[in-house]
Design brief:
The chain has helices at 5-8, 27-35, 47-50, 60-71, 106-131, 157-162, 165-178, 194-209, 230-241, 271-290, 333-341; strands at residues 15-19, 38-41, 75-78, 137-142, 183-188, 216-219, 222-224, 246-255, 295-300. With 342 residues, it is α/β, with parallel strands linked by helices. It binds (3S,4R)-3-hydroxy-2-oxopiperidin-4-yl beta-D-xylopyranoside. Residues 42-43, 142, 220, 251, 309 line the site of (3S,4R)-3-hydroxy-2-oxopiperidin-4-yl beta-D-xylopyranoside. Keywords: Carbohydrate metabolism, Glycosidase, Hydrolase, Membrane, Polysaccharide degradation, Transmembrane, Transmembrane helix, Xylan degradation. Its EC number is 3.2.1.8.
């Protein structure tokens, strides 16, 4: 019988995992119950899942995850009210069915912006009102900063139609609907890279100065055994904590490959690679423990290597093994390293 991750980290921070509705029963559910005390929906609470068509809400898959967490005394987090992926196209179509981004007439652009922000506000209010008593921690916006795009803001339909007002609207509506007790996060990947980190910092500071309610930064932390350095990850968190913000590790996993690596270990992962992964997980969690005062929780993007978005990821189409449990749901060297670091 192996130790429990969540118990090992009790008193430091919660340990979480992203799940699908189907994971709420069977062997994987048992693994989750033993090792995590925080749950997030991997897909079921994204805009396209919750509101696939205007005014048609699809609660059932999301509710199953909420019920599972509540039945097992686990905290929940919400992912995500706003994103440029997995969002219904209907949000961005004008009343004639034409893409709002193509509009050139200034008056129509203004009307489109207003309509988009109304749709956004309705989505946020409806969802927050439904789950506010069950979910404390909310990703309000996801991946809105992109240093390579104009103004360093991701050139999504949201931004191209509404500028940064969509971000302000989402946070304000979430606070109004959810009250003072829910915690509101801006979530992104690559937050360790100085360019990304500094642009998020600048954006958050600008919004906070305007009175926009933001409580913390979610660091996806999709990393690899090759990088980035642990010190760079922690440095970014320290910077945000100086603004009085919480930091959450929201989507942790550690790929065996560099992004452009053409290798594929398949089901035959070399020992030394698993050891390397374990060593880096150890270093990471030792740093998390030392910095527990600025870290509100650590959530893995999955629990075992048979189910991870990095398997057959479209770009590289390879087998990966980024989590603490293997394809048979057995503890990997990385699991023991994380236990040792508690
Ligand atoms: C991923 C899911 O894991 C996949 O199942 C889905 O096909 C695509 O989205 N950053 C995020 C998450 O914020 O929502 C993404 O989740 C992974 C990258």
């Amino acid at each position: 019988d192996i130790p429990s991750l969540a118990e090992a980290y009790a008193g430091l921070f919660p340990i979480g995992a992203a799940i699908e509705p189907a994971h709420t029963s069977g062997l994987r559910a048992e693994l989750l119950k033993k090792h995590v005390n925080m749950i997030v929906a991997e897909n079921a609470m994204k805009p396209a899942s919750l509101q696939p068509a205007e005014g048609r809400f699809n609660w059932e898959p999301a509710d199953r995850i909420v019920e599972f967490a509540k039945a097992n005394g686990m905290e929940l987090r919400f992912h995500t009210l706003v994103w440029h992926n997995q969002v219904g196209d209907w949000f961005f179509l004008d009343p004639e069915g034409k893409p709002m981004v193509d509009e050139t007439d200034p008056e129509k652009r203004e009307a489109n912006k207003k309509l988009l922000l109304e749709r956004l506000e309705r989505h946020v209010r409806t969802v927050v009102e439904r789950y506010k008593d069950d979910i404390r921690s909310w990703d309000v916006v996801n991946e809105v900063v992109e240093p390579g795009d104009p103004d360093g803001m991701r050139a999504s339909p949201w931004y191209r139609i509404a500028g940064i007002d969509y971000i302000e609207t989402a946070f304000r509506a979430a606070r109004e609907a959810g009250g003072p007790d829910i915690k509101l996060y801006i979530n992104d990947y690559g937050t360790d890279s100085p360019a990304k980190r500094d642009r998020i910092y600048e954006l958050v500071k600008e919004l906070l100065d305007k009175g926009v309610p933001i409580d913390g930064v979610g660091h996806q932390t999709h990393i690899s055994i090759h990088g980035p350095s642990v010190s760079q990850i922690i440095e970014s968190m320290k910077k945000f904590s100086e603004l009085g913000l919480d930091n959450l590790v929201t989507e942790l996993d550690m790929s065996l490959y560099a992004w452009n690596d053409r290798r594929d270990y398949g089901s035959d992962i070399p020992e030394d690679i698993l050891r390397k992964q374990a060593d880096r997980y150890r270093e990471l969690f030792e740093a998390f423990r030392e910095n527990k005062d600025i870290i509100g929780g650590v959530v893995f993007w999955g629990i075992a290597d048979d189910h991870t978005w990095l398997n057959n990821f479209p770009v590289q189409n390879r087998t990966d093994a980024p989590l603490l449990f293997d394809r048979q749901l057995h503890a990997k060297p990385a699991f023991w390293a994380v236990i040792d670091s508690a």
